[in-house]
Write a structure and sequence with these properties.
alpha/beta; Rossmann fold; 8-stranded mixed beta sheet; 16 strands; binds S-adenosylmethionine
Length: 416
């Protein structure tokens, strides 16, 4: 694959092997990956020869000091492995800020909590826009799993917003005391470890990670230990039943991911949120699209220096591993926890209806360099073949339903 600046996925169904055309890591960086590999190998041995893929992914991404998100590698942006919407353009965070103002007006909540803040750029641009609109929050809380990223966020925010720095508070875990406010996350759920299921006509298996005689990681399919997975597999089968006529390979196994952590996360946020809303942006589908027979290899994907491929065992710690979001599953978890799904739309519709037009109306077309650059950013955020269609925004409200301008163009929540 040619070197290119990729936003996260263009499409989920990917079958591309990691190969020799990928940039070789330096000896030092390779040693880092080997060290993490050994740790995972030890875990597999200690657990009797296999671990769930969720455990593998968790170690590969979040082992302190070594995991992909927990070590000092540059991950986001042109020099990293992928680029996210807030890194592409401040317009993304500015539109979110405008929607936060609408939520604040309807709920009287003036505390924001961002979970998984990456480089901190979304927090910076969002708070700058709130300042411009004279709607600064009392506090901007950040919950970040990676100590390394938390450091990076603190440095970036101190440098860009020294006059507002004291409004930022970093948390180690969700607030223990009930909390009211707005919870925001961009590309958080897709970074949570997933279980892999292999649905066969007669049985349901989980894909575990084991080792061959040379200690290389290999797949090992076995009965799922967690009873929740069996129940979810039954639900997936029920979604697939009406689509069976579209399946031209009914005898072949169907591989898919289950993000139990995302479901649990929604439930824990719902429990501590006394009032307010949750606004989540990520790539994914409704259940009927997610479990479509054609997506028989699932949506698991890896990003290594702007190359996309499907081998999660390649250079652990040096590449991102991710899976798309089943937004119907998120909506069900939300409903079960007493949240109201108040909006679901594509990123393009969300931004177009949510302020993009007003934010760019004073651009000077004679300033060709600036104008062209903003046009490029908008294209990346909104074109269907870029991030516009695959990325979705879901709004979950506590206590009452909310109405936001950003969902007024198109609200697809009845498809969830
Ligand atoms: C794909 S990155 C997205 C970063 C940023 N939101 C952006 O859009 O550029 C995922 C982020 O979520 C963080 N993360 C993953 N799981 C988390 C959790 N359970 N709690 C808090 N942060 C988490 C990662 O460390 C990382 O900062």
């Amino acid at each position: 694959m040619p070197k290119q600046t990729t936003s996260k996925p263009a499409d989920g169904s990917l079958q591309k092997k990691a190969d020799g055309s990928f940039p070789e890591p330096s000896t030092e960086v390779k040693a880092h990956s080997d060290q993490l590999k050994q740790l995972i190998q030890q875990t597999i041995k200690a657990q009797g020869g296999q671990i769930t893929f969720a455990d593998y992914m968790n170690q590969a991404l979040y082992t302190p000091g070594l995991g992909y998100y927990s070590a000092g590698l540059k991950k986001f942006g042109k020099q990293g492995d992928f680029i996210t919407a807030p890194e592409i353009s401040p317009l993304f965070s500015q539109c979110l800020a405008l929607q936060c103002i609408h939520i604040m007006q309807q709920t009287e909540q003036h505390i924001l909590l961002e979970v998984g803040a990456g480089s901190g750029i979304m927090a910076i641009e969002l708070v700058l826009e709130l300042e411009r609109q004279v709607q600064l929050p009392e506090q901007y809380l950040i919950l970040e799993l990676s100590a390394e990223l938390r450091d990076r966020q603190q440095q970036a925010i101190k440098a860009r917003l020294p006059h507002l720095y004291e409004r930022f508070v970093w948390l180690d875990c969700l607030p223990e005391k009930p909390f009211s406010g707005i919870v925001l996350a961009n590309e958080l759920l897709d970074a949570m470890p997933v279980h892999l299921l292999r649905l066969e006509p007669e049985q349901i298996l989980e894909r575990y990670v084991a080792m061959d005689s040379k200690d290389n990681f290999i797949w090992q399919d076995d009965i799922p230990e967690n009873p929740r997975l069996q129940k979810i597999a039954d639900n997936i089968r029920a979604v697939q039943k009406p689509l069976a006529h579209l399946n031209d390979k009914p005898d072949q196994p169907y591989i898919t991911e289950v993000n139990l952590q995302a479901i649990d996360w929604i439930k824990s946020i719902a429990e501590i949120l006394t009032a307010g809303a949750i606004l989540l942006v990520d790539y994914g589908y409704t259940a009927t699209e997610y479990y479509h027979p054609q997506r028989s290899m699932g949506t698991l994907m890896c990003h290594y220096q702007h190359h996309r491929h499907d081998d999660p065992f390649y250079l652990p710690g040096l590449q991102d591993i991710t899976a798309h979001i089943d937004f119907s599953g998120i909506a069900h978890a939300a409903n079960d926890s007493g949240l109201n799904v108040s909006g679901f739309t594509t990123q393009a519709h969300f931004l177009m209806a949510g302020g993009l037009v007003e934010l760019t109306k004073d651009l000077d077309p004679d300033d060709i360099v600036h104008f062209t650059e903003i046009a490029r950013q908008i294209k990346m955020l909104t074109l269907p073949e870029e991030m516009g269609e695959l990325f979705k925004v879901i709004l979950l409200a506590k206590d009452k339903t909310l109405s936001l301008p950003a969902f007024k163009f198109q609200n697809f929540q009845d498809r969830l």
